[in-house]
Each structure stands twice: as C-alpha cells, then as structure tokens.
Design a protein that fits this description.
Length: 359
C-alpha cells in the first residue's frame, strides 16, 4: 500500500496487534507511525478525536528551551520530522511563519537570529511598540492541532487502523504480569501491545495496575479571537502577548493560568488580553473572543516526557509529554521504531518510566 511517496508493507498474518489509548495529537502520531510499519492498530478514545488538550493548544512548533535540556535531541529533530509528515500526508497543513520572540528587558545576547528594530518592523509592520531587538527563528511554525490530529488518524485508517471513539477503557486483561488486552464497556479487545497516550488520564489508568505515574494536569489558557486579517505575520511571543493569526484571520493567543478566582477566569483573561493586543497592534477595528478555555497539559513531575515500557508490566508502553504538539511527530516515529523494529532510541533514554520507580 502507498500513501503518496510512502510505501507500506502490510504483513497482516504476523502483524502485532497494538492498542493505542488516546486520540490526541500524540496518540494519533503513534497510531499513524505504527500503521506505517504494518501493525494492526486500534485507537481507543473516551471522547472524540482531538477532544482533550490537543483541541486547546496554541500549537507552536517550538524548538527553543532555556537552561539544561535532557531532551535536546528530540527538540532538534522536531521540525525535520514535521516536514517529513507534510510530505507523507498532504492534508497535514503547517504554517511555517517563523517565530519572533522578545523576553522582558532590552539587552539580548548576541545571536545570528537577533533582529534590529527595523528588521522587526519589516516582519511585523503592525507592531505599535516594537522592541529594540528580538530573536527570530524562521524555521519554526504552528499548526491547527485538531486538523493535524484528524490528518494523522485518517492516515492510520488508510493503512487499516480501527478507531473507536466514545469508548472508555475500564481496565486491562493480564496474564503472568503481561497485558493481553483492554477492557471496555462493550467488551474486551485483545492486544500484543498497549500504548498509553491518553495524557492526564494515564495516571488513573496506571493506578488500575497498582502503579502510579506522577503526571500533573498543568492548566493553560487558550483564546481564539475574531479579528481583522493580516495583522500578525509570524508567531509573536512577547511580555505583553503570545499570538499568531491563521489563514482565515482568526487570532490565537496563549496565556498562563493564574488561579480560579473570578477576576482570573478564562473569559476575564481573554478581555484583558484583548486590551493588551489592541495596545500592541495597529489597525484593529474590533477584536472579539470566540473561545476562551483552559487546557490541561499532561506534565510529568520532573518536566521530562515519559516514553517507554512500564516497569513490572509486560507489553505496556507509555507515551506522554509536554510539549505534545512540538514532539508528536518525532515521538511517534521513535516509538514505532521501538515497538515494531525493536530499535532502542538513545534520544529517549532520559524519558523512561522506570526513573520514577527506582529505590
């Protein structure tokens, strides 16, 4: 079977039966890459495809990181892996606009990507208060995370994958401390391997196996505005705003979650952010919040992705991370290499789940 320039050998007689739990962008990427290698894939999702935090993601494909970074290899490969996926899946649309960022303060360290104020205005002529300097990474971009997830799921289905939505996992079947399948409300589904890619729900799922992974639900606010088109050309990350504009003119913004007080409710923050955007961008006739909501990002306790076999339980593999959108493409490929080809990835060494169970 062939998807565009990708040739796939489907070995239906000997293919491994793999269940992927979770149909966000990470689970969809894992499912697609497994299907590309000929696995018999079943995706199980409690809600709809991309109905969790994926649908509430700013979706910046951002490779930068401050301080020591144990997953530097994964970040470095992220953009190349997304370009590969674009070639394989024509329905996967990524906007490679570049990212313009200027942290608080005016003195930035010298860099080849450091722009002058005049250069900043060439990129973003609608900025009212351009900084004296800013970093610009022309390779970075963003995507519609929901659309991208559906493209990956469709790619997996074209290769024979089955997708079960509105299907809640109730537990697992085991034999000799090895998972042999998944229990759902409609019955058991047998498997040779199970991949947990259900984000914040993974903690509860592993607790049914008397294990608990320290995955926190880290809140962030995602806002979508109706606004005049062509106000923002790149992705802008500044002390005042983090925004990007899609091809239909919709302005997307990300904000930190503060607390659950009335004044910091997502709708109130959307109004304050709109005022800040008006102060920063020229030519705004109107800016109206279309959506303001909280997304719960699955964040491991130590901030490092959790990718690998669950210790003490055979045939159970975990794949969860923040930032999920940035790393979904590279993680999906490496996970499929490990599960189907038994190719252990050195880049995943810092991510193994057993680090939480060492005594």
């Amino acid at each position: 079977m062939r998807i565009d320039n990708l040739e796939v050998d489907l070995k239906t007689e000997s293919a491994r039966r793999v269940i992927v739990i979770g149909a966000g962008i990470v689970g969809a990427s894992v499912a697609y890459h497994l299907a590309c290698k000929g696995a018999q894939v079943t995706v199980i999702e409690a809600g709809e495809v991309a109905s969790g935090v994926t649908g509430r993601s700013f979706a910046w494909i951002n490779t930068s990181h401050s301080g020591p970074d144990p997953i530097a290899q994964l970040r470095a490969a992220a953009i190349q892996e997304y370009h590969r996926l674009e070639a394989e899946l024509p329905d996967l649309k990524i906007h490679w606009t570049g990212a313009l960022s200027y942290p608080p303060g005016t003195d930035l360290e010298a860099s080849a990507n450091l722009l002058t104020q005049a250069q900043i205005l060439d990129l973003e002529p609608n900025l009212k208060n351009p900084p004296r300097q800013a970093f610009y990474n022309p390779q970075e971009g963003a995507l519609d995370a929901v659309q991208a997830t559906h493209a990956l799921i469709a790619g997996a289905q074209a290769l024979g994958a089955t997708v079960l939505v509105h299907t809640r996992v109730q537990g697992f079947t085991l034999r000799d401390a090895t998972v042999t399948g998944v229990e759902t409300a409609t019955g058991a589904i047998e498997a040779d391997l199970v991949v947990l890619a259900a984000g914040t729900a993974i903690r509860q799922l592993t607790e049914t196996l008397n294990l608990s992974l320290p995955i926190e639900a880290s809140p962030a606010i995602f806002i979508r505005y109706r606004m005049q088109p062509d106000r923002v050309n790149t992705l802008i990350s500044s002390p005042e705003m983090e925004v990007r504009q899609d091809s239909q003119g919709i302005l997307l913004a990300a904000e930190d979650y503060l607390d659950n007080s009335l004044e910091n409710h997502s709708q109130a923050i959307a109004q304050r952010t709109a005022a800040a955007i008006r102060n920063e961008l020229a030519g705004i006739i109107s800016i109206e919040p279309e959506l303001a909501c909280i997304g719960l990002r699955p964040t491991p306790a130590d901030g490092v992705p959790i990718i690998g076999y669950l210790p003490g339980i055979g045939a159970m593999y975990v794949c969860t991370m923040h930032p999920g959108v940035t790393l979904a493409a590279v993680a999906g490929r490496l996970v499929s290499d490990e599960l189907i080809d038994d190719q252990v990835s050195p880049a995943l060494a810092p991510c193994r789940p057993d680090r939480f169970f060492k005594t």
